[in-house]
Design brief:
By secondary structure, the chain is an alpha/beta fold. It has helices at 16-27, 39-49, 61-65, 91-119, 140-160, 178-191, 195-203, 215-225; strands at 7-11, 31-36, 52-55, 73-76, 122-127, 165-172, 237-240. α1 crosses α8 (215-225), α4 (91-119) packs parallel to α5 (140-160) and α6 packs across α7 (195-203). The structure holds nicotinamide-adenine-dinucleotide.
Length: 247
């Protein structure tokens, strides 16, 4: 994979999957723009990979519109999780999650497509989740947002095809990141059980492979989607879930 001369914008690049994607794309030669609300974390990642850090809150849609438009690879990755039963789900948190995880990816897609169309090449990778295709209780906002992102990704694929742009979702189950650490703690509180039980009995109950996925495994596939053999993969949602959705 050679992305020399390509610019890649990765949101949520300061941590977890986003960080691994930024590192992998930079290793392939791309100039990486590491975007994160946590500017310090973005700077740390950018310094490590020779990229550029941009501190931006994706909930601020004006700030999203002001991000660089001339990018060849867009990884919509930033996300957050709030766990609560529907009857108690805070409406402001529901709205925030839709803004960061659906509206911001829409704005970014809209922002970068003209440049990709001009170059006749572009790769958009939307980091979805198994929750883009199935649901779990207590995750109303997250499940709704990921299902929305799936729709955006497919429309992008249909419109982008004639311009050499592919768009796909990558759908991990549980990846070992700070977000999952928080989820484990939240679910333990909601269910009144120990954190080890959350991992074994709830998170990995449905998985055939009873292990958390590593961020690098997701990043490797994101990079593959930017490679020449993947040029025919578009409008797809690729499960990286250890068989979580196989039954
Ligand atoms: P993480 O919490 O480790 O990293 C998320 C990053 O996004 C953080 O650096 C955070 O600062 C940034 N971010 C959050 N809100 C932001 C905002 N408003 N503006 C800009 N940046 C913001 O999480 P992660 O586990 O690496 O998750 C990354 C993506 O992968 C998310 O979309 C998540 O839904 C998805 N995902 C994660 C898992 C998993 O098990 N970890 C599974 C499936 C999908």
């Amino acid at each position: 994979l050679d992305l020399t001369g390509r610019t890649a914008l990765v949101t949520g690049a300061g941590s977890g999957i986003g960080r691994a994607c930024a590192e992998r794309l930079a290793a392939a030669g791309a100039e990486v723009l590491a975007v994160d609300i946590d500017e310090r974390a973005a700077k740390e990642v950018a310094a490590a990979i020779g990229g550029r850090a941009i501190g931006a809150d994706l909930a601020d849609l004006d700030a999203v519109d002001a991000l660089p438009a001339a990018v060849d690879v867009l990884v919509n990755n930033a996300g957050l999780q709030v766990v609560a039963p529907l009857t108690e789900f805070p409406p402001d948190k529901f709205a925030l999650i839709q803004r960061v995880m659906v509206e911001a990816p829409f704005r970014l897609t809209r922002l970068v497509l003209p440049h990709m169309y001009d170059r006749g090449w572009g790769r958009i990778v939307n980091i979805s989740s198994v929750h883009g295709v199935v649901a779990s209780p207590y995750k109303a906002a997250y499940v709704t947002a990921k299902h929305g992102l799936e729709g955006l990704s497919k429309v992008t694929a249909l419109e982008g095809a004639e311009h050499g742009v592919t768009a796909n979702c990558v759908n991990p189950a549980f990846v070992r990141t700070p977000l999952v650490d928080k989820q484990i703690a939240d679910q333990a509180a909601v269910n009144g059980i120990a954190e080890t039980e959350v991992v074994e009995k709830i998170m990995l109950k449905r998985a055939a492979i009873k292990k958390l996925i590593e961020p690098e495994q997701v990043a490797e596939f994101v990079a593959y989607l930017c490679s020449p053999p993947a040029s025919f993969i578009t409008g797809s949602s690729i499960m990286i879930d250890g068989g979580w959705t196989a039954h």
